[in-house]
Amino acid sequence: MTSPMIPPTRSSRDLILARVRAAVRGAPEVEIPRGYRTAAPGTDLVSLLAERLDDYRAQVHVVPEAEVPGAVAAALDRRGAARLVVPGGLPEEWRRAAAAGREIVRDDPPLRADELDRVDGVLTACAVAVAETGTIVLDSGPGQGRRALTLVPDYHLCVVRAAQIVAIVPEAVARLDPAAPQTWIAGPSATSDIELNRVEGVHGPRTLEVIIAS
Amino acid sequence: MNHPEFCERGLAVRVALFITCVNDTLFPGTGRAVVSLLRRLGCEVEFPAAQTCCGQMHVNTGYQAEGVKLARHFGEVFAGYDAVVAPSGSCASMVREQYPRLARAAGVTLTVPKVYDLSEFLVDVLEVTDVGAYFPHRVTYHPTCHSLRGLRVGDKPTKLLEQVRGLELVPLPAADECCGFGGTFAVKNPAISSAMCADKVRNVMDTGAEVLCAADNSCLMHIGGTLKRQRTGVRVMHLAEILARTEADK
Amino acid sequence: MSRTFVGMPAFPRNATRAVQNSQLRYNLRKATHTIRGKRAAVVGELPDWAELRAAGKAIKDHTLRNLDTYLLQLEEAVTRAGGHVHWAADAAEANRIVTDLVRATGETSVVKVKSMATQEIGLNEHLAARGITAYETDLAELIVQLGDDLPSHILVPAIHRNRAEIREIFLSKMAEWGRPAPERLTDEPRALAEAARLHLRERFLSTKVAISGANFMIAETGTLVVLESEGNGRMCLTLPETLISVVGIEKLLPTWRDLEVFLQLLPRSSTGERMNPYTSMWTGAVDGQEFHLVLLDNGRTRVLADEVGRQALRCIRCSACLNVCPVYERAGGHAYGSVYPGPIGAILTPQLRGLGSELDRSLPYASSLCGACFDACPVAIDIPEVLVHLRAKARHARAERAGMRAAGWVFDRPERLARAQRLGSRFRRLVPRRLPGPLAAWTDTRDLPDIPATSFRDWWDKTDGGRR
Prior knowledge:
The complex is a heterotrimer of chains A (214), B (250) and C (468).
Chain A: H1 10-24, H2 45-55, E1 59-63, H3 68-79, E2 83-85, H4 92-99, E3 103-105, H5 113-116, E4 121-124, E5 128-130, E6 135-138, E7 155-161, E8 165-166, H6 169-175, E9 182-185, E10 190-194, E11 197-200, E12 207-213
Parallel strand pairs in A: 1-12, 2-3, 2-4, 4-7, 5-8, 7-12
Antiparallel strand pairs in A: 5-6, 6-9, 10-11
Helix pairs in contact in A: 3-4
Chain B: H1 4-7, E1 13-17, H2 21-26, H3 28-40, E2 43-46, H4 56-61, H5 64-78, E3 84-86, H6 89-106, E4 115-117, H7 118-125, E5 138-141, H8 145-151, H9 156-162, E6 168-170, H10 185-188, H11 190-207, E7 211-214, H12 217-229, E8 235-238, H13 239-244
Parallel strand pairs in B: 1-2, 1-3, 3-4, 5-6, 5-7, 7-8
Helix pairs in contact in B: 5-6, 6-8, 11-12
Chain C: H1 11-19, H2 22-45, H3 49-65, H4 67-80, E1 84-88, H5 91-105, E2 109-112, H6 116-120, H7 123-129, E3 133-136, H8 139-146, H9 163-177, H10 189-206, E4 209-212, E5 216-218, E6 223-228, H11 232-238, E7 242-248, E8 252-253, H12 259-270, E9 278-283, E10 290-296, H13 300-304, H14 320-324, H15 326-331, H16 342-353, H17 358-362, H18 372-376, H19 383-393, H20 398-412, H21 414-426, H22 440-443, H23 456-463
Parallel strand pairs in C: 1-10, 2-3, 2-4, 4-7, 5-8, 7-10
Antiparallel strand pairs in C: 5-6, 6-9
Helix pairs in contact in C: 3-12, 9-10, 16-19, 20-21
């Protein structure tokens, strides 16, 4: 990590700011109307999230909280994942379920990208989920790890607790702290670049499996 | 004839006809149809003879100064009327939607007279949809961009057509797509304009209609010019001309 | 991308050529119609779309009004979070800053996230001339780069290519740039995506410098936001040791909360999805990475100074206006001669570059003013209004000027109009089927209407409005 010796472009900074000020001189102030929804009470959060995630080709299971470890083990068995990376801070019973009969790789010290590329998958929790848009948000908090962890492995298994689900985007934004790096995930990696049709499976995990604890 | 604004005062509805320069010069039959239709519905129609052009061609082609001059003239001619009716969605939208923008862009003050497109005037002001018309033909309707997205007349024209006795209204596929006229666009970008029109004509032909109707003769001149060139046999007619027909015209 | 848009002829000529290319017409029609339906469906799902659109417009206008304050706030927040902020007044300065930053790392290759700003300044060509290879990683950008082609759409730069053409490009060109395409590659979109994954995998894992743009920058927190689908963005933003983001100064939003509006407006307008697969947000230097933000003006402050034209700076690059535009659908993106094609390009390019060239002067006329773009725009940019405004600023051809002046003279007095109409009626039988000069453009494909024997006003005069 070198710190490049670039002379600060002070003059351009002043120039741009001066141009901006001259350009908007006398322009009227603008009020921001916020008449849009900031909450959507009465939504069946669990089933809407499940439906919307499924729309975007995520594999979704809704199970009671107590059955999460069993569902984790079953998912990993189906996938045939033998080496799994698990971030710190994941609930112990989930971690134990994942570890049974599998090799667990820890990201401490941080794994190199090529090392991450050689694991079969990653198991994480999440910070928030948005039902209406079928989105899971990871904010590097407990059980989520740094961003690369859920990126390089080809399989991402994520557990969402019912209490983490909000109905719409504004509720999620309100719950999150921008100081932590975030990844918002809506389905497996996809592209619309060929004839504007969506197909799943490019650079990110090609399989996203979600267990919703109801 | 039950619009409160007029009924409360117990007056006959007095309207000024804004014929538009294109109709005045090339499609006088549309103007005559508007006059006869409005009279049939009890309106007193005036034609302010000092009118010329709203300035749309100049403004939209980039001749703002000439446009402002014509807009000023228009304001003077029509300022005193409660209702101005135009058989052109495009020209009505020029006055209502574009005059305020023109005034802002040119830094001038402009009078914006109360101009209605014909279908708006019939449905919103006179509150009629059945105008007693008779036209026993298969008709499809092109909504035209400035009526649809400028004035937002919605389904008013088709509501009127649905009430015409004998008329079979068939839906036009991709109706909301532009025909490619766009004023001077038709000659400045002829290849794209013609390609757009070719698609519009194909959609018209797919309906099997005998008549293509619209509330704007500029668009009809464009689509009609292609229909004729391709010897399709489909006629074009302004909405006013269909609504003016009665059983007596058989 | 070694080809450039420089020196292209005016829009009508480019468009005429494009319209005759039936493969291109077919590809564009198919793609734009697919996305139109998807967009309409997901926009229709939201009961408060109109309110979100009004808020989005106002937030952008408010930000532009106070851009100096928010830029300083952003600079402070990014710096506080360990990032470095650079200011670039124009393309040359931005290119110089980025080149110096890459050189300081000692690397000779970079991976790139799709970015309009870096295309606008021609960064890849600038780096190539200085021995630095920029690898595009977005699938569509990869197709354009491998095919030595030009982008033709804001969101999907290779929209003009269909699956069979993409397969051909992959088979013939991937080997020159890195891992070759699989031998038995089919034209199935899934197989093509898989080929891109394999081609770029090693590069992602080993490249030490990445260059990106950003969809949004949050002034109060210093957070940058990138929306994407494939995961190539996450690869570039996360794995390399150094990240350089080149971002237009108009990409600011004042507060973190404002994202609640734009994270709803952008994906639905752009790919017609409720949410795009991946959105990355980061503040300053994260996970041991070195982070540089290059703030780009390059003509934006000139656009800002235009009271009517400045609304173009609200643009969030969703491309909804391209996808609904009947002119774009038939002319394709290359005809606009700019990285910003379509309706937004027709108002943005001539404002950013000025009206100096014939091409840039022709762009405001590349529209029938049908208004479909304005309806689709999630931040309510009145594109027709700006088009007309720019037409008033453009220099016009002498013959046209004379014609318009003559028409203005006739319309100036009703008696002149009446005289002209009578003159036309008298000679109406003599109008040729094919008109001469520029008006031949009409009669090439369309018949003329018959000139009537009497104008409406003469009829009214003679018959007292039909009463005689």
